[in-house]
Inverse folding.
C-alpha cells in the first residue's frame, strides 16, 4: 500500500471517529427516521383514503409514499452532513484537521467517503422502517386493505432512497466547505434542495418549470420513481436522467467546496 492510500485511510479513520463519537450524529439519524415514518404515513394515508373514497381499483406499494416522504426526511441527513464540517470552522478545529492531513483534497475526500456510506445505510434503514410501518398501519380495513409490500418493488425503492440521501449529504458537505458556516450551509442547502425548485414551479413559466426539473428535489424523485410529487404526478423523465442530474449537482458542490478549501486559510 503506497503512502497516499495509507494516509487517506488514516484520514478516513479519523473522520469516522469524529462522526460516531458525537451525540448529534445519533440525533440526526433518529430524526431522519422519524421524519421518514411520519411523512410516509401522511402521504400514504392520504393516497389510501382517496382510493377508498373514490373506490379506485388497484393496490398501493408500501414503499411508494416513502420515496415521496424522502423530500422532507432528507433534511435530517442534511443537518448531519452540515455538522461534519461547520463546527470545525466555528471552533477552529479545522486547523488541527489540516495539520494532521495537510493535503486539503484528502480531507474533503475522507469526509465524503465516511459520510456517503453512513447516510446510504441510514437512508435504507429509515426507508425500511417507514415501509414496514406504512404496511402495518395502512393494511387496516379502514384504509381498504390495499397496501402491499412486494419485494420486487420495495427493495429497489429502498436502495434508491439510500443513494439519493447519500448524494444529497455529499452535496451538503460541499456546500458546507464552501460557505464555512452553519447558517450559510443550512440556508443554501434548503434553497437548493427545496426552496428554489418549488419557487421555480410556482412562477408558472415553462422556463421555471424546466429549470426546477433539473434541480436535486425533482431529479431525486425521478430517480426514486416517486409517483406522488409536488407537481401532482411523476417527474416526466426517466430514473437514469434523474441520477445524472443528482451526480452533476453533487460534483458541482464538491468542486466548489474543494476550490474554497484549497485557496482560503483555515
Amino acid at each position: 500500500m503506497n503512502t497516499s492510500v495509507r494516509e487517506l485511510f488514516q484520514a478516513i479513520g479519523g473522520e469516522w471517529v469524529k462522526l460516531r463519537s458525537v451525540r448529534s450524529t445519533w440525533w440526526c439519524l433518529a430524526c431522519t427516521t422519524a421524519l421518514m415514518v411520519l411523512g410516509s404515513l401522511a402521504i400514504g394515508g392520504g393516497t389510501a383514503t382517496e382510493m377508498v373514497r373514490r373506490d379506485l381499483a388497484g393496490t398501493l406499494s408500501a414503499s411508494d409514499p416513502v420515496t415521496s416522504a424522502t423530500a422532507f426526511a432528507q433534511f435530517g441527513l442534511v443537518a448531519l452532513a452540515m455538522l461534519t464540517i461547520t463546527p470545525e470552522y466555528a471552533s477552529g478545529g479545522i486547523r488541527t484537521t489540516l495539520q494532521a492531513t495537510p493535503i486539503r483534497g484528502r480531507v474533503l475526500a475522507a469526509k465524503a467517503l465516511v459520510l456517503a456510506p453512513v447516510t446510504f445505510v441510514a437512508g435504507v434503514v429509515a426507508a425500511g422502517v417507514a415501509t414496514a410501518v406504512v404496511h402495518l398501519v395502512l393494511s387496516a380495513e379502514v384504509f381498504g386493505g390495499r397496501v402491499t409490500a412486494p419485494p420486487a418493488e420495495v427493495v429497489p425503492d429502498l436502495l434508491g432512497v439510500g443513494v439519493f440521501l447519500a448524494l444529497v449529504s455529499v452535496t451538503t458537505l460541499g456546500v458546507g466547505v464552501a460557505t464555512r458556516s452553519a447558517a450559510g450551509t443550512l440556508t443554501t442547502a434548503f434553497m437548493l434542495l427545496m426552496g428554489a425548485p418549488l419557487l421555480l414551479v410556482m412562477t408558472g413559466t415553462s422556463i421555471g418549470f424546466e429549470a426546477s426539473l433539473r434541480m436535486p428535489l425533482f431529479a431525486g424523485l425521478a430517480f426514486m420513481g416517486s409517483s406522488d410529487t409536488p407537481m401532482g404526478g411523476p417527474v416526466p423523465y426517466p430514473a437514469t436522467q434523474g441520477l445524472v442530474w443528482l451526480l452533476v449537482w453533487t460534483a458541482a458542490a464538491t468542486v466548489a467546496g474543494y476550490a474554497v478549501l484549497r485557496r482560503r486559510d483555515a
Q: What stands out?
A: The beta strands are 60-61, 147-148. The first helix runs from residue 3 to 20. The chain has a mean pLDDT of 89.
